[in-house]
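Two proteins were folded this term; both appear here.
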Amino acid sequence: MAHSRRNIAPLLDTLSVYDRVIEVGIGRRTDVAAALIDEDVSVTATDVHDREVPDGVRFVRDDIVDPDSSIYADADAIYALNLPPELHRPTLEVARTADAVFLFTTLGGDQPTVPVERRTIETGTLYVAQPRGR
């Protein structure tokens, strides 16, 4: 089920400050990527399966566990929605290699498996991992 624009507004407020973002594991939830395009953010979406994405979003088939680092090299931020715990560390490593901020949400009661700053948003918690350890 797609989120209303109001429900994704906190995500957009956070992500729209970046020029180039990559959504990892876009799946069928394309509303955030589409809204970012409307905010003039360059969006690339990845998934392990071929996916339909909104106009303006670049799609690349990639597995974050065995990534093509060239896809992520120019990203300012890498984000993922409902990211399962087993993908937190691999995605953080890709973000660190690209020197990009890593932002994500989890599903239900899953806790982050990497060091994060927690930001409470209307729809739950947005986790933010900086590219380099502090």
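Next, the second protein.
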Amino acid sequence: MDRILKSISFIFHPLLIPFMGVAFYFLVSPRFTPKEVIHAKLISLAILTIILPVLIYFLLKTLGRVQSVYLKTTNERILPLVLNGAIVLIVLLRILTQTQFIELYFFFVGILISTMACLILAILKFKASIHMIGVSGLFMFFIILSIHFSININEILALMSIIMGAVATSRLHVKAHNYKELIMGFFIGVMPQLILVNYWLN
């Protein structure tokens, strides 16, 4: 059980959440998008939201700005969150513009808002769960897409509910967070996606 919980927490690492959301969108969207465009967007996102943050982490670790990938203290979180916010902003300006993919654009606006909220809390010495922010935001995005495209993905939503519970359990199990930090992470992930619905859901 311990190995399973750690595996789920690793698979649904916050770095992978944006890529998962975009991949799922292209999988279920009824709109025609050329395969070349999809591949280009996914490759660009993988470079910006996965590979680049990993390289930045190793740079920060070399410089002594972070001690581990888990960012255990609030002080360690501040610079990585600022840099992650900058990366998300680049995605919004260059990769997923509002005129191309409005759903994905506001998905990333929600991610940016969640990142900034987490940054503010880190400055205030509160360590919200970034894992819960990511997985709960993705879960809400899936729900909105199912409504937006009128598709039945109840099985996926049920699985995501289980995964959220497993991620929360995993973070408690390794004593990375307490209940308050997990609950705060859940709301920081869900609320921006829910609020932004008014700007694109029709």
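The chain is about 75% helix and 0% strand. The mean pLDDT is 87. These notes refer to the second protein only.
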